Amino acid sequence: MFLDPADIIPGADDSDDEEEGAVVPSATLAVVIGAGPVGLITAAYLARRGFRVEVHESGPNPALGPRPNSQYPMVLTQRALLAFKELGMRVSFAGPGATPHRGTYDMSHAGGAGGGAASSGPVLRPGKPGDAYRSTAVVGRAQLEGELLAEIRRLWPHRVTVHYGSTLKRIDWDAKAVVVEAEGAPQGAPLSASSDRALRGNSLFA
Fold first, then answer.
1. pLDDT digits (tens, 9 = 90+) for 63-97
2. Which of these, 86, 106, 141, 165, has the minimum number of CB atoms within 10 Å of its CB?
3. Would you kindly state where each structural domain of the chain is located, as residue ranges?
4. What is the CATH number of domain 27-70+141-205?
């Protein structure tokens, strides 16, 4: 199966109509394993391209309380904040309404096998006034996941489904199937307790 870079990478050449066997997003189910920050952002980019997305997370629904080991701070760089802007996400820790943070790290001074100024290490440069996305942010992981999930449900309510208590058992590449096990009735999924479910067909796994 051919995956067009434009299906995931914004701004990439879109070759859906040029490549034989190219993925048609609207006819493809994308299965994402893990509903942490990376999994949710992956689901958001896929949904924006038109994929139907199922996210499967073995842990409990965070709406029932923070998951174990999820209470720690995360540093978000300018690249992450710009991704939220690009996706149209309204999050409290990025954008005009967010508390200003330090600035951005200039990595142009981090190289230099020959020594000198080029090897002095990264330089922290203050953010420009009014440039709300050229900064760094610190946010708790649980808060980050909660806000990303809320924005995904706001932006793509009929395109993305998140299943909690749903554990990946195996992927059968030959059959183009992924098998997940539900420990209960995950939100948005009519699954019976301890049932197995095989997702088959024209699928993309992430």
1. 887 777 777 888 888 888 889 999 999 998 887 77
2. 106
3. 27-70+141-205
4. 3.50.50.60
